[in-house]
Prior knowledge:
It contains 13 helices and 17 strands. With 387 residues, the protein is α/β, with parallel strands linked by helices. The protein is elongated. The site of magnesium ion (MG) has 10 residues, from loops.
Amino acid sequence: xxxxxxxxxxxxxxxxxxxxxxxxxxxxxxxxxxxxxxxxxxxxxxxxxxxxxxxxxxxxxxxxxxxxxxxxxxxxxxxxxxxxxxxxxxxxxxxxxxxxxxxxxxxxxxxxxxxxxxxxxxxxxxxxxxxxxxxxxxxxxxxxxxxxxxxxxxxxxxxxxxxxxxxxxxxxxxxxxxxxxxxxxxxxxxxxxxxxxxxxxxxxxxxxxxxxxxxxxxxxxxxxxxxxxxxxxxxxxxxxxxxxxxxxxxxxxxxxxxxxxxxxxxxxxxxxxxxxxxxxxxxxxxxxxxxxxxxxxxxxxxxxxxxxxxxxxxxxxxxxxxxxxxxxxxxxxxxxxxxxxxxxxxxxxxxxxxxxxxxxxxxxxxxxxxxxxxxxxxxxxxxxxxx
Length: 387
Ligand SMILES: [Mg+2]
């Protein structure tokens, strides 16, 4: 099979993330060129993580073996692929290094797209504004790495307001764990007066750890125009969620409540205590923009890998890929998203996570249903004659 040798890119593609991505993969693949020039693959793969590759921190479904098939014996990447997860809470660089250790292959930060990765596109708007980051892990570190200069985690932010959470004395973890303010947090509080500056936006980066405290403090921020303890206001600071997953598969046998469940709880409470309804924006799968972004990242991998000439003539109509495979466990997130994204996406549903049915899912049927990710990769490689 022959392929178009010119890859056309958007003239306006100047986003820093894509530039870094291109640099990253180009450096990674440069060694490969010096050794041999393989035939250019006509396909790419996007893997969901939770319920497909890992359960908690345990690899499942033969994922390490499946991923190894995408690399040459030398350890360099053979087939373009990335992880497309709605999860997060740590910077992409850290997640890539964790995945590399767990799966035994070298994952680049540019191959990790998390639910909150699109928050990077909002840096221009909030770079120097006081913003709050909610969720497990290191939500403020994630936002700082994206370029937000005045971001505080909701843990740090709440600690400046005495008695903002009347239940904190009953929370053993809150009593034991006095908030240890890091240097970034101290820098922010040198630039901002947390007790008088209004919060300009709240970002739910990852799953809330303390729903009661977070719902309370977010309602305080969102109903007062950004300053807890002051009068109610008609202005609601913008609220962003990294995803809207109702449930996800973790280590427990049945699904766990996700960020979508937290959003429903927050929205229900906010709408009861405030005269206007909650306004918010959700990112993550199944939004078509997530799949468009993944397609661009894979295209950059491919162009670097095969050293094809990139021309800036603004023509975005050509597809270097015959097929892009989305392998996921959640019909309403992974499969629905791939379906909505249309050509060239092909959806594969595994039975290792949220979906456990014998047949296809009735509402969001996948193009293919398999037991494990290993089976999915074997099918792809066989189908593409690349194994
Ligand atoms: Mg999943």
